[in-house]
Amino acid sequence: MQKCNLDIYMNELDEWEFDEGVQIVDGYDTCIIGKDYKDGKAVYSIERMIELMMTRDGLTMEQSIEYFDHNIGTAYIGEMTPIYIWQGENYNDNIYKLEKVQES
After folding, report:
1. CB of 39 closer than 8 Å to CB of 83
2. Sign of CA dihedral 93, 3, 56, 26
3. Torsion, Cα of 88, 94, 99, 104 (10° steps)
4. Burial of 53 (0-12, 13-18, 19+ CB in 10 A)
5. Which of 7, 22, 32, 45 is 20 to 30 A off residue 53, Cα-Cα?
6. Is the Cα torsion angle 55, 60, 63, 68 positive or negative in sign?
């Protein structure tokens, strides 16, 4: 299986200067793409989370999406629950390419 280079993404939580009480998803620090302006919540890329599950955990795209849907995206953990966003079509193309590599 081809490994993607997640090292290019920011992975230091300290660089975001999150306030105390902000909820962080364990194991997905490299998937943080920002900080909510109004409330200071952590903002995650869904595509990066799916890509990480595919490369790190060996899940298929379908399994990764299902895991995200049932265990992360719908979880409410208080007022500082993270925000999850889709980055768009260009990023989705990378995930589909990764899935094709997994299938071969």
Report:
1. no
2. negative
3. 160
4. buried
5. 22
6. positive
Helix ranges restricted to H, the chain: 46-56, 61-67, 89-103
Sign of CA dihedral 65, 29, 9, 45: positive
Q: Report the distance separating Cα 33 and Cα 42, nearest Å.
A: 8
Contact partners, residue 102, CB within 8 Å, separation at least 6: 1, 54, 60, 61
Beta bridge partners of 32: 44
Beta bridge partners of 34: 43
> pLDDT per position in the chain (104 positions), as tens?
344 454 544 445 667 889 999 999 999 999 999 999 999 999 999 999 999 999 999 999 999 999 999 999 999 999 999 999 998 766 666 666 777 777 76
Q: Copy the structure tokens of residue 40.
A: 């200071």
